[in-house]
Design goal:
Layout (H helix, E strand, L loop, with lengths): L2 E5 L4 H12 L3 E6 L2 H15 L3 E5 L5 H12 L7 E4 L15 H28 L2 E6 L9 H20 L5 E6 L3 E2 L3 H4 L12 E2 L1 H13 L4 E2 L3 H12 L2 H12 L4
Parallel strand pairs: 1-2, 1-4, 2-3, 4-5, 5-6, 6-9, 7-8
The structure holds NADP nicotinamide-adenine-dinucleotide phosphate.
Length: 255
């Protein structure tokens, strides 16, 4: 029996992970803030797949809540075999904003919580001799679109560091770097999507299925879709001046 803990498992990419993992028979622990949506998701997954679903209503911007989730990951009586560090959101604020609170909140949820939960899972899984940690990063981490890119660059590099640290222990670490995926993400951050070409949108189910295949192949960085793999290869080879110019273009008129 495998148990997977998915943060942000009630919507978008996290919900697609929850459905895919329940579909292969994994029991689940779902974490998000909205208790009503958590209960709905648990009912849906148990009815469809007969798996056990535990829910934890937690705000990953709150240190006590993050510690509660970390304690669940550290449990030896009810072990968690797979962590999906997925909860996150867009950060549509200028870096020069006088009020840095929204940036600090984004850092708490998408960096601090990922660090604390990844560490708790890594320690426990290492002691057990196996497990998997998937950190949902973004292709935005390869360009320079404000605070969000900086956060996701951290998530990708952090995942590579954690993978190195846990090498040889049986614990697999993978950073999933999606391109644009139709979820609640853009609406929640008030990001205009009308200029994004249809070919660049990824399907959440396919994204998750490709990521789980990459995990089986022990890939540390998973970039689903040939199109995005080609774009990111070009971005890695391009001079940073070109990356900054493309990022300015992509950022303009988004809000
Ligand atoms: N969609 C894209 O184009 C795209 C592309 C690349 C990467 N990503 C990344 O994919 C991940 C998932 O995003 P999504 O597109 O699936 O967005 P989404 O549909 O808006 O889902 C976000 C999930 O995170 C949870 N969440 C948000 N803030 C939270 C908090 N403070 N504490 C606990 N849970 C919280 C939400 O539940 P509650 O609101 O109930 O808490 C929800 O379940 C994020 O890390 C995002 O950066 C998305």
């Amino acid at each position: 029996m495998t148990t997977a803990l998915v943060t942000g498992g009630t919507s978008g990419i996290g919900a697609a992970f929850a459905r895919a993992l329940a579909g292969r028979g994994d029991d689940l622990v779902l974490v998000a803030r909205d208790a009503g949506r958590l209960a709905e998701m648990a009912t849906e997954l148990t009815a469809a797949h007969g798996v056990d679903v535990e829910v934890m209503s937690a705000d990953l911007g709150d240190r006590d809540d993050v510690q509660r989730v970390a304690n669940r990951l550290a449990s030896t009586e009810q072990p968690v075999d797979l962590l999906v560090n997925n909860a996150g959101f867009g950060v549509p604020y200028a870096l020069t904003n006088a009020d840095t609170t929204p940036h600090e909140h984004a850092i708490d949820v998408m960096i601090r919580a990922v660090l604390v939960l990844g560490g708790a899972a890594g320690r426990t899984m290492k002691a057990r001799g196996g497990g998997t940690i998937i950190n949902v990063s973004s292709t935005a981490g390869f360009v320079t679109m404000g605070g969000y890119s900086a956060i996701k660059a951290w998530v990708t590099v952090y995942s590579e560091g954690l993978a190195n640290e846990l090498r040889g222990t049986g614990v697999q670490v993978t950073a999933l770097c999606p391109g644009w995926v139709r979820t609640e993400f853009h609406q929640r951050a008030d990001i205009k999507t009308s200029k994004i070409p249809d070919q660049l949108w990824l399907d959440a189910e396919r994204l998750v299925s490709d990521c789980l295949t990459d995990v089986e192949r022990h890939k540390v960085i998973s970039i689903p879709s040939k199109r995005y793999q080609a774009l990111i290869l070009a971005a890695r080879l391009a001079p940073r001046t070109a990356i900054r110019a493309v990022s300015r273009k992509l950022s303009s008129g988004r809000h």
